[in-house]
Each structure stands twice: as structure tokens, then as C-alpha cells.
Amino acid sequence: MSQTMSDALLLLAATGLPFAGAIVAGMLPTHARNTAAWLAGAIAIIGLGLVWAAYPTVAAGGVIRHSMAWMPSLGLDFTLRMDGFAWLFAGLVFGVGALVVLYARYYMSADDPVPRFFAFLLAFMGSMTGVVLSGNLIQLAFFWELTSLFSFLLIGYWHHTAAARDGARMALTITATGGLCLFAGVLLLGHIAGSYNLDVVLASGDKIREHALYLPALVLILMGALTKSAQFPFHFWLPHAMAAPTPVSAYLHSATLVKAGVFLMARLWPVLAGTDAWFWIVGSAGLATLLIGAYVAIFQNDLKGLLAYSTISHLGLITLLLGLNSELAMVAAIFHILNHAAFKASLFMAAGIIDHETGTRDLRRLSGLNRFMPFTTRLAMVAAAAMAGVPLMNGFISKEMFFAETLTAQGSVTFLLDILPFAAMVASAFAVAYSLRFIHGAFFGPDPVDLPHLPHEPPAWMRLPVEILALACIIIGLLPAATVGPYLNMAAHAALGAATPEYSLAVWHGFNTPLVMSLLALAAGVTLYFLLQPLFRNNIEGPPFISRLEGRRMFERSMVFLSWRLARTLEGLLGTRRLQPQLRLVVCVAILAAGWAVYRRGLGPGNLVPQGIDPVLALIWAIGAACALGAAWQAKFHRLAALILLGGTGLVTCVTFVWFSAPDLALTQLLVEIVTTILLLLGLRWLPKRLPGTGTSEVMRTGRRLRDLAIAITAGLGMAGLAFGVMTRFPPEILAQHFLERAYTEGGGTNVVNVILVDFRGFDTLGEIAVLGVVALTAYALLRRFRPAPDSVDVPEQQRDQSAYDERREGDTVADWLLIPSVIARLLFPVVGMVALFLLLRGHDLPGGGFAAGLMGSIAMILQYMLGGTQWVEARLRVLPLRWMGLGLLLAAGTGLGALLFGRPFLTTYFAYANLPLIGEIPTASALLFDIGVFALVIGATMLTLIALARQSVRGHRAAAPRVPAASPPVAPAPVATNAPTGAPTAATGDD
């Protein structure tokens, strides 16, 4: 039990700590650079310590697991799983992350909002940890999309530059689209395997490969992996992501984000590999990316651009190894993932140092930095040598393994297998050439001239991460078996199991073919670099022969076509800015769908005999129907009358609920009617007038009305027929019986409706209140930008007519003439609040609940706004609706998360009886906290909408107030009654 608990805490801490740190960093002051750096560094080191604590277990071949039930009936559990392969990647995430944090502390300017940077970095670290530790495919897809989201924020961190905004948008579009494909693919994969649990999926390799849905699942999953790892033809987003700060590039584009795709392919290799489809798709994409990336990298003038294309090429090498359907190639791929993370992170940091200390990354302006930055030069030379595959460097060993695999690869496509060794040598020669250009172009040659800054060495702490990584390149290159051997063996056995082949990490394997290929590639690369010197001196822009094949241009044209031309065309054909045609289209589609279902299935008589209709209920329904028809008839030109009639229909609905013994629904319906009627009245005040007889001809207007009448009658009869069909049929199993039997025993409440909302269907309710909050925020944002039509700014006609007969003075309000109701409303404010609290507390056992209580509390506030005015209320009460909404969501979600701490599924409730002094034993349920969250969010959302509408009156009076010319003498204000409230229409000051 204790071991299980420690494993759970280890995995949960490793995944959750970065997210917690991101929240804390996000709340730090803008200038708290050191605090944010210490926080991020401490979390990365603690995470690395947690990973190391798991080493004894995973090194022995064990798997650390922890699972919490989420929605077990759907196979959705929150599962964390660490084996040797996941351990290796988690170590990369935290280890390289710690070095990047130290580097970023000195790289980032004090003028930047550095805490926000570290908040994004920590959130990405947590997302990446979630990807590698996920034991459930759906959960993996969720964390996968989180990495896309936070990488978007990191790439666009310097959002004041167009390059950062464009690069972030491109990266998010490509990787998030791939993530959607991945989600669809894992749904298919889980369907084939019968479970989304990773252990079950990994044990179902033959079943998956033989299934008819294997190819669609494979293509969709590979779309996600190839887009994330920037493989051809999706490679073009990565170079444009170099607009990010260099610490982001060193972290995301060497060890984490771009490695997520190859991690996924390696993780699912035992399940998806071994087929011709895998070989063709993965192998072809890897080979094309390997060659294109290496070739384009040679001709990049930006240091980070060169490293970006070299990263693309090395990722293509790893992808090609994974595509060869060979266990040895799989081991070589894992080894190169490690090596690439070491030398590429150090090279990105070296490029950042050059940019930081000279003010430029342009190779056409850089030269001779060796004399100004000798230590940085040696470090960059070591890392570049590893990237080029120079002997006695870590990159040389994995490159030798790559050459060996290209010579022994087997498959049905002999032509592709024949050219693999030559393609590998060409790509390796290109790697030597762009590595030489990085070192020779930046550090050797004449002294640089006209640089923005005088070059000098960076601070020692800024250079320390580069030194550590460069030292790793040397040590691994000299002693691979003793240093990285145990970890590679552990990861290979975790990924391949019993199929793990024998391999050797010896530095010297004799004078063999792979060694000859390496030497030839080195010689060819050096020769090629010096042959290209004339092109470099002429400041060539882009790679020869394929410079016009620019991925960004194709992406932008595609986006313009999809988001502009095609969208505008479809909008012209199907769209409209008017609400009525949109509703007409929705209703017609619903009618067609229902009609098609009736046509296919038929609609026979039910198995229940209809009973007689009570004449009183029939009369009530007749009144409701008359109100509905009257509202429809008056809606066009008499909105107030239509709203009143619509309220009558709502009251009839409320009475119907009471008639059929549904007090919860009746109470909620009544409160909703009150609140929505008032909010609609406030909104109707600012709509422009519509006059009859304008616009089109009478014939066309009559035709439209007849068409709308036919649609309305058809939809109404259809709903009536559907309701009649449901009520005249007795289903074989009544769902209500399930809830009636379990409401008290499992939910702890006797009000079945409320128990359903906060317990059985609590997840639905959580989603609904979240949507309610989003709608309220959207309404507020729109109304803040809303300015009424000119003919709506003046005082309404009804008030002008009333003023003609009243003796009111300017500055008086309705509160002056309704003094007694206003005083009563203010005295009733705490009483109505107590009623709301009463409804909240009784809701689990009697009619009420959080939603009804929230509406009741909102009514108390609405009365104050109506009788006191906007300014009067806001001068005396601080409503703070956003805090109410945030508190409500936190309470509701926190109640669900609290169940996870006790090993129960999300939103599982607990109830017990508490003994209170003088009161005795009372029932208590954790669902009450959830209901309080609903209550708070409903009040906040309603008040936010009310405030947005109410402030239109303040703006309207301000817009309608006559402007006094500057040259005119001051006019004495008209006398104002001493008892006039501060919310008078003329007192428009104090608005937002």
C-alpha cells in the first residue's frame, strides 16, 4: 500500500508541479525576474529528482502506474505510466528544462515580462511530461494539444513583432490540426483494441495490424506525429518558429516539442510498425525530410534558421530509422534522440549567446568571433562536431548505427532500399557542410565590422548550460557504453520488450563499411563547403534549384483560400448577418432530419391509451397558445407587447409544471421568466425602430410571411407529434427508476432532480455552467463595444408622453415618484438574499438548488438597479461579477477534483450526517459545494449581463446630453431636488 502511494505521489508530483509553478509564476509581478527563474529552476530540478527516484524500479524492468477513475464506463481513466522509455524522455524534459531555465535567466531582458515567460515554459514542461507519462490514449491526445497551445504562447512571446505572431500562428495551425487527426486516430485505435489503456493497446499489435481500420488509424496518428516533428511536407513551420526567444528554441526545438512526434511513433512502434504501409509512409517522409532539411540548412544566413533546418533533417533521420521496421533501427533512433538533444540544445544556446552579445545572428555580418569569444567558440565547435558526426563525438556513434541500418534494411520496395545508403551519405555530407558553415562563418575569418554590439563573452552562468551539454557530447562519444548504455538499454527494452536485439555501443568496430561511409561523408562535406564559398560570398538567398518552393508561401495561400475566399463564398451562399434566416435554416434542417427519421422508421401508434384532457388544463394551454400566437404576430413592430405575451406563455408553462407535480421545474421556470424578461426589456430599449411598410413590396412581404408561417406550423406540429409519440409509449426500461432508486443511497438527497444535476450528471452541469460563463463574458465584451442607433439615444417616446403631463424636473428619476416601492425593495434586499440562501441549502432534499438560488439572488440585485439606478447601486455595492464567476467555477471543479484525492472518479459525491449542537443530526453532502459553485456562477453571469445592459443607459444619456460650445458662457445648472438619488440620468459621471 505504501509503495503504491509513493508511486502515485511521484507520478502526480512530476506531472502536476510544473502546472502549479506556472500558476504561481503567472501571478508574480512583472519585474520579478529572479523569483520566477528560481521558481522555474527549482521545479525543474525537483522534477528531475522525482524522475531519478523512479530509476531503480524502471531499471529493473518495472512499470510505475497510477490510475484514477474518470469515466470508467467509457474507458476514460486518468492514468500515469512510467516505464524505461517514458523515464528517458521525462529525464530529457526536466534535465534540459533546468539548463534552459538557467540560460534564460541571463538571456531574457529585464524589460520583458519574464514571469509570464517562465509561466508559459513551466506549463509547457507539464504538458510535455503529461504526454510522455500518459497511460491512456485520450489523455495523451489532451496533453498533446496542450503542448501545441503553450508552444504557441512561447513562440509568440514577443508578440509585438510580426514574425513572432506569424510563426506562432503557423505552428499552432499545423500542429493543432495534426493533433485533431491524432485524436481521431487514437479513437480508432482504442476501438480496435477494445480499450484506450496504453498497456492494452501495446499488447494488441497483431489484432490492430490485421484490422480493417488499421490503415485509417495509422494515417491519422502519423498525421499528428509528422506535423509535430516537422516532417515533410509539414516541415516549414519550424524555421518560422525561430522568431521565439532562443531559450524557447533550445528547449522546444531540440529536446521536447519536436521530439513528441518521434516519441509517439516509437511508443506505438510495436503496434503500428511491421507493415508496408508503415514503411512507405514513415520511411518516405523521413527520407525526404532528411535530405531536404540538410540541403536547405547549408544556405541559411540566419544561425537559428540553419539550426532549424538541421533539426528538421535530424528528425527526418530518426523518422527514417523508425520506418525501417527493424528493432536495431529502433534502438539507433532512441540513441540519436538523446544525442540530438545534447548537441542541438547547446548549439541553439551558442547561437543565442552570439545574438545576445553581438546583436545579430546573420552569418553575412558575423566573422572572427573566435578572438572575442574564445570559450564560446570551443563549446560551439564541440557541439557542431557532434552534429556533423565527427569521430569520438556522440553523434558519430548513432550515425554509424544509422549507416549500418541503411545497409541491412529489408523490405518489399527494393528500389528505395538500394538508394538508402547513398541518400544517407549525401545527407551526412550536407550535415558536415552546414556544421562547417556555422563554425567557420561565425567564429573564423576577419574581425567583424559594424555590429550592433561589441562582441564579448557572456556571463559564466549563462555559458554553464552550454558547457554541460558540450561535455556530455564528449563523454558519451568517448565512453558510450559506460555513460548512456544502461539508460539506452532500459528504454529499448521498455519499448521493444522481448524483441530487443543485441547491439554494441563500442567506439571502434573495425574498419568496416559504415566507417568508410562516415569518412567519405566527412571528406565530401568539407569539399562541398569550400566549393560553395563563391555562393556564400555573393550572399545567396535561399537554396539553389528549390528556392521558389517556399512552404510559408504555400501555407499563406492555403490559409487565404480557406479562411477568406472559400469562407466568403460559403458565407455568400449560406450565410447571413440577420438572425431570422439563420433560425429558418436551423429549423428547416431539423424538420428534414426528423422527417427522414420518420420516413425510415415509421411512426405507429403507441402502447399506451390516451386519457381525457382536463378542461381547466386545456383552458390554461389555450391561454398559453394564444399568448404565443400573439407574440409571434406582434414581434416585428411591437416588441414590448410581444415580450409581455411571451412572458404569458412562460407562466403557462410554469403552471403546467405545477399541474404535473414538478415543483423544481416550476420554480426554475418562474425565476427564469422574471430574469430574462427584465434583461430582454433592457436590451429592447436600445434596438433601432422598425416601421411598417418599408423595404420590399407588399407581395414579397406576404410571401415571406406565408413561408415562415408554413415552417412554423410544420415545426410546431412536428414537436407536438414527437411529444405525443413519447407520451403514448411505455419504454421497456424507465430511466427515471434508476435515479429514483439511487438518489438517496448514492447521492444523499431526496430531491431527485437536484441529485441528477449535481451528482449523476454533474459533469454535464459543470460544462453547462462553464458555457453560461463564456456566454456572459461574450455578451459583456460585445456590449462594451456596442453603441446604440441614433434614434435610440433619445428618451423613449413613452417617457416623453409621460413628461408632458407630469411636473417632473430634469434630474428626477422614477425613484422619486415610486419612493415607497423603492424603499420597500431596499428593505427586502436582505430578505430576498435569505430566500436565495434558503433555496440553496434545501435544494438537495426539497425544491431549490444552486441554479434557482442564483436566479433569486440575481433578482434581488436587479430590483436595486431598477429602482436606484446604475450609479446609485454601484456607488454603494461592489458586485464584482467576474469574481463570482471565477469562484463558482473553482468550487464546482474543485469539488470534482477533490474526489480524485480519495481515489474516486471525478465529481463523485460523499454524504454523511453531522451532529450540530441544539439542532441535532443533519444530512451533509459534498454536492452542496458543487451547488454553491453553480449558485455563484449564475449570480456572476446574470449580474455581468445586467451591468453591461445597465451601463448603456449611462452612455446613452451622456451621448444625448447637449454639448456646450467652448466659447459660450457657463450656464447655471437647473435646480435639482435635494432628495434626487445619485443615479439620476443627468449624473453620468463615474462610468467605466
Structure description:
Helix 18 packs antiparallel against helix 20, helix 19 packs across helix 24 (513-531) and helix 39 crosses helix 40. By secondary structure, this protein is mainly α. The radius of gyration is 35 Å and the shape is elongated. The strands form 2 sheets. It has a two-stranded antiparallel ribbon. Strands 3-4 form a two-stranded antiparallel sheet. It has 42 helices and 4 strands.
Notable characteristics:
992 residues, mainly alpha, two-stranded antiparallel ribbon, 42 helices, 4 strands, 71% helix, 3% strand, elongated, disordered C terminus
Task: Sum this structure up briefly.
This protein is an all-alpha fold.
The share of residues in extended strands comes to under 5%
Model regions low in confidence, pLDDT < 50 over at least 5 residues: 963-992
Number of helical segments with 4 or more residues: 42
Report Rg. 35 Å
Arrangement of strands in the largest sheet: 1-2
Average pLDDT score = 85
* Class derived from helix and strand content: mainly alpha
Please give the alpha-carbon distance between the first and last residues: 58 Å
Shape descriptor? elongated
Helix content: over 70%
Main pleated sheet: 2 strands, antiparallel
Number of strands: 4
